[in-house]
Amino acid sequence: MSVTVVSTETSVIEEQLAAAREAIASRPLISRVVLTACGGSYAVMLPAEYFFGTAARKLEAVALNAAEFTSRASSRVDAETLVILCSHSGTTPETVEAAELARSQGALTVAFTHELGSPLARASEYVIGYEHGPEKSESYVAPALLLRLIARVLDDRENAEFVTPVDQAIVALQSLAPAARAAHADAADTWGFSHRREQLIYTMAAGSNYGTAYSFAICLLQEMQWVHSAAIHAGEYFHGPFEITDTDVPFIALLGLDETRPVEQRAVDFLVKHSDRALVIDAQSFGLERVAPLVRGLIAHLLFNVVLRTYADALADHRGHPLSVRRYMWRMEY
Amino acid sequence: MSVTVVSTETSVIEEQLAAAREAIASRPLISRVVLTACGGSYAVMLPAEYFFGTAARKLEAVALNAAEFTSRASSRVDAETLVILCSHSGTTPETVEAAELARSQGALTVAFTHELGSPLARASEYVIGYEHGPEKSESYVAPALLLRLIARVLDDRENAEFVTPVDQAIVALQSLAPAARAAHADAADTWGFSHRREQLIYTMAAGSNYGTAYSFAICLLQEMQWVHSAAIHAGEYFHGPFEITDTDVPFIALLGLDETRPVEQRAVDFLVKHSDRALVIDAQSFGLERVAPLVRGLIAHLLFNVVLRTYADALADHRGHPLSVRRYMWRMEY
Q1: For the CA atoms of chain B, what is the radius of gyration?
Q2: Min CA distance, B293 vs chain A (Å)?
Q3: ipTM score here?
Q4: Does any CB of chain A come closer than 8 Å to the CB of residue B116?
Q5: Which residues in chain A are closer than 8 Å to B243, comparing Cβ atoms?
Q6: What confidence score (pLDDT) does residue B8 get?
Q7: Topology of the domain covering A8-168
Q8: 0.90 cut: is pTM over it?
Q9: In this complex, is the C-beta atom of B203 within 8 Å of any C-beta atom belonging to chain A?
Q10: B334–A270 C-beta distance less than 8 A
Q11: A26 Cβ partners below 8 Å, 6+ apart?
Q12: Are A225 and B26 in contact (CB under 8 A)?
């Protein structure tokens, strides 16, 4: 089964995805995957690393910030390496440099970007242009397309059977996402109002949802709201961070559907007992019963992304601080 | 060259290190290394992952929180896998469980712990007991012994030449550590006093020093001081977190000596321009000129650990909040 093509533009994306798949399949020597980007795009790589880390039988995968990747300049970035990159504008210098380095060392490069004519697109051998903005389809956002690519790589390379359930799940997002958004609208508004004076809000998750918690902490809260934050890994919580839990310390904790749910659940159980300011979002409410159990956990983060954006919008509204405001980015050289 | 044996106890440690080395060498099929632990011990694994990630030509290495590792239950944890674990008391349930899982799947298990009779020691095939406390030698702390083990693995498996310079550097720590501690004593006291009312202090680093920044954030600040914190990766700083930089937001930023120093330097340059509360600690002041250039960068984090402890002690003193105080740990079941 393939994703229904709804416009010329998505047919182009399907062709790009197919071309990248074919290029990867034509290089049987590839034994490792490096997922590299910066900031919010790096966060997109984290559930992808989890997908490989739990499902791959042979392929090794690592996610690295692009500046760290280029600095390391590992001798193992070679013809046996697939390097997957992402930059929304395609202009992130560290990510462009990572693509150039990877390509110069013989790695196969596949870039995700919203800008097909961008430096990253030009620096990479294969490009997948994803949708963005109010008119976008939830099936064609970067993290959805990345999961679809990985499903293809695992099916082709390791005789897995991910393509059908992943593609079906990603089609289902088109109705699940607006439903989840609507279901959380009132709660998000209440939360945004009650948190409008908070100077710090922690996020917490594990497994395939950690990237979403990380993205919310560094992009939505720190960058777009100037609210202090840190993404706490739920498995690390009891080994340090939990000591800052208090009745008045706000947290957003995610309960996903993957193998790490018990790890998240244990942290949430403690958190809600000791904090009056814990918001727990449970992916069991996302209607994912429609999706094959094999991939439910891998898909949930896409809905966390959607739902958490609703909370960020509400917070921004009640704080009178639009998500688009910056004090450094776009305002100076650095 | 080998580290000078100064007591029966260290001779036991040397024998344990040699036994682990031999066991790893006797399994030529090993192709991947998983470094797994929780909290402060997980932080010890991060520079080790960097060592493999920059220096290994074939061996793959990944660092994972132990609960995440066990949840993932990857089918690739098998006879081709070396699993290195660490728990100070050897009682951390998640780490013991990780050792048991790894061993049951045929992986070779090597544990670092201070307690040789502990559950982790019993669950693992090879154990390296490290020193701790006021009488410890800086050459026999967990992260030093871990670097020595990795140097041996890389020399044995990949014809590298790390053992001699790493061992020499780790002997040099015995004089470099007290010198660095003394050199920072006054600055630490001044910093501790001036930060005694701060409710949040960020840390920042990259590469082999990120683990130290992470450990300081989650163990020293969050756990032992109940001060909010987050370890910001210097390569991620400009992609979100830097927007919370302000004249009055405190940071501790590390400038190391490894391949990622330019990444750290760029972030520091911005930070000190926009914050009046930035403490920058530069490993160039640690006297590491005595150490072979090949391993200087890999060794610096051991001195950051020592120096930062001095800052934590001073902060605890001026806050009247001993580092040993907990509100949850050791006080309740969780």
Answers
A1: 19
A2: 16
A3: 0.96
A4: no
A5: 222-224, 226, 326-329
A6: 54
A7: Rossmann fold (3.40.50)
A8: yes
A9: no
A10: yes
A11: none
A12: no
